[in-house]
Design goal:
- The protein is α/β, with parallel strands linked by helices.
- It has helices spanning 32-41, 65-77, 95-102, 106-120, 140-146, 170-178, 193-201; strands spanning 9-12, 16-19, 24-25, 55-59, 83-89, 125-127, 131-137, 151-156, 180-188, 204-210, 217-223.
- The termini are far apart.
- Bound molecules: S-adenosylmethionine (SAM).
């Protein structure tokens, strides 16, 4: 892990991690878990689309909150076998910071222990009865083109597009499309025009939906089947 660039964190109100490099919080101050469920689960029509072997991919693993929300939904849905997850991350958080961040969401923190332990040990793969997760470290602009997999559902969760434009570029959105199965989807909290255009250029059908809380809009995208 030593050669990886670490995330530098400041804490807002003692509980919300803010990345100093991007000057942006990792999750919504109001209710991060509810926002995750609205944007990334409902946005991708989950859990309704869960089937055995379903794969989620995510740009920006961050605290792991989105992954844990998906795992909780997978368990509740009772689908056979493990949920498959591939997360891309350039600046991994320290495991202690991850654990501290997740304490804000007792439901997620309650199931986070084995994952945080694996993260602390520098694992790039975590396997259990109901989760098969891989963590791909490095700049997603370099690592995603090299990834051999394709996802049924994408969580596009970079920091705000104005602060982290490299994780929302048209080239990267085209790579997301290239790594999505026919009929697969992507969801994001942002409705920024250049992100929606990038997804559309990547052959997604793009739709604006009501956002979470005070955010008016979010974006969902679907590849034709
Ligand atoms: C809003 S946070 C993600 C929050 C996360 N999904 C969660 O559940 O906590 C954005 C993440 O994108 C990562 N990131 C930013 N630029 C990146 C890049 N070029 N390649 C890969 N990851 C990047 C950041 O380090 C950060 O972890």
């Amino acid at each position: 892990m030593s050669q990886r660039q670490r995330a530098d964190i400041e804490w807002k109100d003692g509980a919300v991690p803010v990345a100093t490099r991007f000057d942006d919080p990792y999750f919504s101050i109001a209710d991060g878990l509810a926002e995750t469920r609205h944007v990334f689960l409902t946005g991708n029509d989950l859990p309704a689309r869960f089937t055995p072997g379903f794969r989620i991919a995510e740009l920006g693993i961050g605290t792991g909150l989105n992954l844990l929300a998906a795992l909780i939904a997978w368990r509740a849905a009772g689908v056979a076998g493990p949920l498959r997850y591939t997360g891309f991350e350039a600046f991994p958080m320290d495991a202690g910071d991850m654990d501290r961040a997740l304490r804000a969401f007792p439901e997620a923190h309650a199931v986070a222990g084995p994952l945080v332990d694996a993260w602390r040990a520098g694992a790039t793969r975590f396997q259990s009865d109901d989760l098969d997760a891989e963590f791909i470290f490095g700049d997603a602009r370099e690592t995603l083109p090299r990834w051999a997999g394709r996802a049924e559902a994408w969580f596009l969760d970079g920091f705000a597009p104005a602060k982290n434009p490299e994780l929302w570029s048209p080239e990267l959105m085209a790579q997301v499309a290239a790594h999505t199965v026919p009929g697969g989807t992507a969801a994001t909290y942002t409705a920024a025009g250049f992100v929606r255009r990038g997804l559309a250029e990547g052959r997604f059908e793009v739709e604006r939906r009501p956002g979470f809380g005070r955010k008016r809009h979010m974006t969902v995208a679907r590849l034709s089947a």
